[in-house]
Design a protein that fits this description.
It is a single chain. The protein contains 9 helices and 10 strands. It is an alpha/beta fold. It folds into 2 domains: about 5-90 and about 170-255, P-loop containing nucleotide triphosphate hydrolases (Rossmann fold); about 105-170, no CATH class. The strands form 2 sheets. A 6-stranded mixed sheet has the order 6-7-8-3-9-10, with helices on both faces. Strands 2-1-4-5 form a 4-stranded antiparallel sheet, with helices on one face. A hairpin with a 2-residue loop joins strand 9 and strand 10. The two termini are about 35 Å apart.
Length: about 260
């Protein structure tokens, strides 16, 4: 393992008016590690994720990323063009609502192909073949390559969004409730898919979820947020099996009853 964290987060704070959405959050994310951020609605986890991914500018603190192309870069002072390039090449972002992460007016193949073109692919036949291969990897029928996402079910759209994000082999993926709003059977299928891809591609990821079962399956380490603050952090099994903070104990007791 490298001696350098992939993501270095220091004292990130974000306010909306008089309300603090997240306060003084600090952590390091290491290559190949999946970090879960859990908590109830309003705990600040999605705001924090958006600050980490450069989608939102914090009021205080910093987020630094160890870029493959440029070394350590401070995310928020980057120009819009450089940040956009980063999100298209070294990063991925899986939204809860797949419609926010897909271009609904173009085909499934074009959705995947766009990411390949962002990292320099130009040969149409090779792009199409790679897109076809990735449809297979996310368990979508290959003859749906030229169909638009509007013709897909919610679970298929989510799997297509995953393929679109991972086809460029990003080093870091942000995931915001990737199984939220889906039927239980569809959730299980996507969780299985994500777990396999994260392991096989040696991805680093930051996962936001309110579902502790999802966190247990996908993450190595957990941060528990309440009222914008991290109240407990540690290895996932340790936090879930032996919670120390009263809020974490309440979450575990209500969501994962013994």
């Amino acid at each position: 393992m490298t001696d350098t964290p992939l993501l270095l987060v220091r004292d990130v704070t974000k306010r909306f008016g008089g309300r603090i959405a997240c306060c003084d959050v600090s952590f390091d994310l290491w290559p190949g590690e999946v970090l879960g951020i859990v908590g109830e609605s309003g705990s600040g986890k999605t705001t924090l994720l958006n600050c980490l991914a450069g989608r939102m500018t914090p009021d205080g603190g910093s987020v630094a990323y160890d870029s493959a192309s440029s070394g350590l870069v401070d995310v928020h002072p980057l120009s819009e063009a450089r940040r956009r390039l980063l999100t298209r090449t070294e990063w991925g972002f899986v939204n809860q609502d797949a419609r926010e992460g897909l271009r609904m007016g173009v085909s499934a193949g074009a959705n995947i192909g766009e990411r390949l073109m962002a990292i320099g692919a130009r040969h149409y036949g090779e792009i199409r073949q790679t897109a076809t291969d990735w449809l297979g990897r996310v368990e979508i029928e290959l003859d749906r390559l030229d169909d638009r996402p509007t013709a897909f079910s919610g679970g298929m759209r989510q799997r297509l969004q995953i393929a679109r994000n991972l086809v460029s082999q990003p080093r870091l993926v942000f995931m915001d409730e990737p199984t939220g709003g889906l039927d239980v059977s569809v959730q299980a299928r996507i969780l299985d898919l994500l777990r396999g891809l994260v392991a096989n591609l040696n991805l680093s990821a930051v996962l936001v979820t309110h579902d502790l079962g999802v966190a247990r399956l996908l993450t190595h380490r957990l941060m528990v947020m309440q009222g914008g603050r991290v109240v407990e952090a540690g290895l996932t099994d340790q936090v879930l099996d032996d919670p120390q903070h009263a809020y974490t104990q309440m979450l575990v007791a209500s969501i994962l009853p013994v």
